[in-house]
Structure formats: structure tokens, C-alpha cells
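Preliminary data (for renewal application), manganese (II) ion complex.
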Amino acid sequence: MIKVAQFSDLHFSGKNLDEAGRCFGYGVDRAIERGVDVAVITGDSTDHALDVHSPAVGRLAREVRRLADHCPVLMLQGTFSHEPPGTLAIFPLLGGRHPVHVAEHIGQVALMGDGTWAPAQGWRFDAVPAGARAVFTCIPTVNKAAVAATVGAADAAEAVGRELAALLSGYAGINGAARAAQVPTIGLGHGTVTGCITEHGVPMAGFDHEFTTTSLFSAGAQAFMLGHIHKHQSWYDGGRVVAYAGSIGRFHHGELDAKGFLVWGVGAAVARFELIETPARRTVDLVFDGLPDLEEIAQAATELGVAGAYVRVRWQVGEEERAGVDREAIKRALCDAADVQLEGRVVPVVRSRAAGISRAASLQEKVRVWAKATGCTDGPLIDRLNALLDREPSQIATEILSVDEAGADADASQLPSAIEGRPLVAEAEAQQDQPAEVELF
Ligand SMILES: [Mn+2]
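Predicted structure:
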């Protein structure tokens, strides 16, 4: 049985320095305490291309060196945008007590009894190297551009999965031979397993992913240690285990699961792991359907204890309400938080089409269709429309004025009926306006 510490997705960068440094540093301490025999980092050691003089490079190198002073280390190439090819080349130069091996290409490497790394000459060993303590099968990030150059861009993603499945099953023979020779076999990969769940709870469906659990198990490795997906998860098949360690820290809002690294025990015919949690930062999400409620935010600040946490406040408002959000007041209410991220979404005003309005024969009919589509009462509108069509402006004005006069006499409770009030208008017409009308005509 060999004891392996698997770290993954460290994402060292200026922005992540605090989180990655604290969590990886903690992980290295625990791995050394537990006396692991070998340590692997399954990709994305860095978050993006970093300058050599950046503090993140110094911190990552120090931690890898601490590991290498304790045991042999293997680093796998991760996603190119996170870890540009060549990034890992400096780590074997650190000069710890044990060697650091970098796996940038598909292939096998044996950890020898004397703690050295012995890479296979081709894509696999022809025979199990004598004196091997464990055999590693390395599947770093596959260059889809290289595959696209051969099969065309449209088919590249699916072709990668097909080719990797064929490749992985090609390791079954040599891994079987290692097992028969009582040598533990370990697969290392960086990519997506079809059907896995992301750190945000999204299932990765489809056929354009690198791996399937079937293709991974077909390699015949006792343990398959994966990087790329930041949520820890695992699969089992007759004593073989495939697992994502998950990211070392909590780098994004909305990642609810525990963060950590895995300590594996791998024998020729057995594999198991334990998740060791890292002190990843706490994130708090406050979500509002409408305007963010300052009182609720203040209450959450006390009840949830936002001190030191990374808080995200999300809201969704209509265009007319957007000015009502006081960002500074929100920040003041959350002043104890380590970081506050404000994400407001403005919903544009949407005007619904009144279906069939163009086919309505009369203006009255159009008003009815519009009122139905917008949920308005059509009656008073039709009355006013009829008034516009049938009466002279002066007549309408006089009516409105007479209603106002009547309204002024009446008390406030009578006002609504005065406005709607046909009787009032009719009365006014009869009593006062008839002569004026006659004169006008
Ligand atoms: Mn990653």
C-alpha cells in the first residue's frame, strides 16, 4: 500500500493568493504530518500566466519545495488557459530532497523504490519496471487544437473523448501486469467526466467531454485521481475508485461543499481515500427578488455573522427602480465582511404585443384587445373613446368642468362616482350646458 496526497486546482494568482496560499499551505502541513509517500497535483496549479516576480509564484514554489523536501512530487499539466504550457518546467529545478516530475504529455511514469521517477519511453511501459513502487498513467490536458487540426473543429471535442477512450483501454494490459506483480497502479487526469457535477451543482451532460467513468475504469488503474472540476466527487467499480479531489480552496461564490485534498491508500488491488478539509473561506449569498432590503441585510450581517466572510448581494429590479439601490449603504451594513460583491440585475421593460389587434375592425375593438392583453378594465376607456368620437372638444371640456364643480360641492366619498358618474354629467348637461351648446352651434 502506498500513501498518496492528491492536491488539485490550486489556482495560485494575485487575486487568489490569500485563499490558495492558506489552504495549500495547510494541506502540505497535514500531508507531511501524515507521512505520505508521494504527492501529486492534478493540474491548475496556477490560475493564469504569472510573472516570475509575482508573490503567487514565490508562494506556490515554496509550498511545492516543502512537499519535495518530504516526498517525491508529480505535477500534471492542467487547463492551458490556467497553466500555459511550460509553466510547470521550473518546479523540477527547485532542488528539494526528492525529485519533482512534471507530466506534460500522455504517458506512464514509475515511482521507483529509491524515490526517483522513471518515465516510460513510449506512451506506456512494455513491461512493469523492476523495482517500481507504483506505476502512474498520466493524462494531462489534451490539446483540442491539435485534434481539431486532424479531424476538423466541429468534431474535435467528441473525437477527443473517443480517442481517449481507445487510449485508456490500451493501458489495461500493462496495468493488469502491474497488479499481478503486486504494484499499485494510479491514473492521473485533468478533464471533465461526462455526468459529473460542477461546483455550482450543474451536471455535465453531453458527448464532448474528455472522460466517461467507463473509459476511466477501462484503464485498469486501481485509483484514478482527477483534476479540473472543483467539486469533490467519486465513483466506484469493483474496488477501483475514480475521484476528483476538488479545488483546494473556495475560489468562487456559490460553492457550498467542503474544500480540501485527498489522502489515498492504494494497493495493487485496493484503493481508498479520505478528504482532509482545508480552512477555505466562508461565502455568504444574500439574494433579493426586488430591491435589496437594507434592514434584512443588516439583520443577516448579525445573524449569519458576516465578519471575515465573502459576501455576495444579488438583486433584480425593473429599469424604473434601478436608482433606488444604495450601494454604499449596503457596503456600510456589511463592513465586517472580508469582501462584498454587489450584483444587480436590471430587468428591461418588456412591452407585450396585443395579439390580433391589427385584425380588430373598430377602434373600440382594438381598445378591448389591448385592455385584455395588459389586464386593464376596458369599460371606462371605451366610454372616453366614444366621447372623443361623438362629441365636440368644447362639449367634452364643459362636461369635465361641470363634473369638477359638482365634485367640489360633494364630499370626498362621492368623488369616484362623480368621475365615473354618468348621472351627474347628464344632470349637469341638462341644467346648465344646453343653452351654451345651442349658442355654440
Ligand atoms: Mn481548475
